[in-house]
Amino acid sequence: MITRRAVLLAGASAGVLALSPSASLGRASRSVDTLPADAPVRRLALSAREVDLPILGADKAVTKRFCAYDGMPFMTLRAPQGTRLMVDFKNDLPDPTTVHWHGIRVPNDSDGVAPITQKIIPPGGSFAYNVPLPDPGFYFFHPHCDETGQVGRGLVGLLLVDEPPERQVPFDLEHIIAVKDWRLGEDGQWLEMFTTEGASTAGTFGTVRAVNGLPTPPRRSAPANSDVRLRVIVADSTRVIDFGCDTDEAAVIAVDGQAIAPFTFDKVPHGIWRMGPAMRLDVHVRMPEAGKEVKVYDYRSAEPYLLTTLVATESGKARTDFVPKALPIATEVPMPDLDHAERLDFLVQTAAGATAIAAPLPADDPLSKALIDSMCVGSATFWAINRNSWGAGPDLRLPPPLSTLKDGQSYILSITNATKQPHPMHLHGHVFRVLSSSKKKTMPPYVADTVMTEPNETVEIAFKATSGNWVFHCHILEHMDSGLMGWFMVV
Ligand code: C2O
Ligand code: CU
Fold this sequence. Notes:
The chain has about 500 residues and is mainly β. Helix content is about 10%, strand content about 35%. It is built from five helices and 29 strands. It has helices spanning about 1-20, 145-150, 195-200, 365-375, 475-480; strands at about 40-55, 65-70, 75-80, 85-90, 100, 125-130, 135-140, 155-160, 175-180, 220-225, 225-235, 240-245, 250-255, 260-265, 275, 280-285, 295-300, 305-315, 340-350, 385, 405, 410-415, 425, 430-435, 445-450, 450-455, 460-465, 470-475, 485-490. The strands form six sheets. The protein has a six-stranded mixed sheet, with no helix packed on it. A five-stranded mixed sheet has the order 9-11-16-13-14, with no helix packed on it. Helix 1 (about 1-20) crosses helix 4. The protein is globular and about 70 Å long. The structure holds CU-O-CU linkage (C2O) and copper (II) ion (CU). Copper (II) ion binds near residues 421 and 484.
């Protein structure tokens, strides 16, 4: 079946173009590079492939067809700010894929979104990504093609971008917490990732909770009274967590990799920071006295779910008052001019009655299957933004842009969630300011690339538009694969 799909894809690309009203893509936008041409270059080869892996432990069944970059779960890249990664990517999966560099201000043609910034990379194919790293922070990369299936089976890489040494803030320990469940049957093999029931509601959850891939939460030791930097990411397709810890000496120091004025957890409602899929958080934790522990939880679960235990060991460090460490604010990020910003309103809604089906094909038509692959989406439409759904199922048109924006112009997006589910909304190619929420009145100011919208909440974000075709979507992957994605054409 896989081979047949691959063959069809090769044959069907002309059909894709004929069916999508995407001729307008031709007049799109220049690709802006966010680093000077002489920036230091690091060349690297990256592949996506399937491996058989005992994910749940050496004594458990081997899971077949785990998807991983370079064959490693949570493969992690690390590079200095100002570096340009030239990534020679090879698709060794038996399915098409692309790579999206989440949160990184890449040139549009390296953004990895089929079909609007590149063609899908067929099995055996390759693609050269130009990934400048203009801003320090915690990012990640993942496919933008059958995301529900490929990310669900593990295809996520982490990317840490470090400030130059003279701007680095020292910590005694850095600990990554990657929250991602596995959706496995009793036999240790993958269950279906996209379900109609899940896609049309909160998403389909995994069956095994895990941190950093493992079902047992990590225990890390750090010297008593020392300073730990937690780097937290929700890499799950579905799960929303309420991040918090059982100590008063913990402060948020960055959101989505972007430094903010630190605040301790008592400054936010309920002492937690809600994180949907794709969101990151950097937290400064002061270790207690020797022998004591700090426990980090997801308090959203019925029983708080332990994410990590930090154990304080003996050390020569004397106890001092806890003062959260402020990271240097990245001045490179273009900030919107709120006095001259244009306002745009977006309604996140269910798709009932919202889509116009342009050229439906029977779902079992081979061309229809190939088209689904080339749009890299799911098999049904449940969601829309302003009555527009990204193509899915038999409705395989590329929708018109949500809006055509001007390069360099500032915009305020008001996003209203008119559904019963939370939607973490992500904008490609930009870092935005989160201005306000109709529900969280005491929110500290921050910048981000993904913002949570709760049912009946209106959130305002602002950004300065950069040339390119950029998608805007929910990061609950079944939602984006069933219509909850649109795009901006910035010219
Ligand atoms: Cu991580 Cu289109 O997103
Ligand atoms: Cu959603």
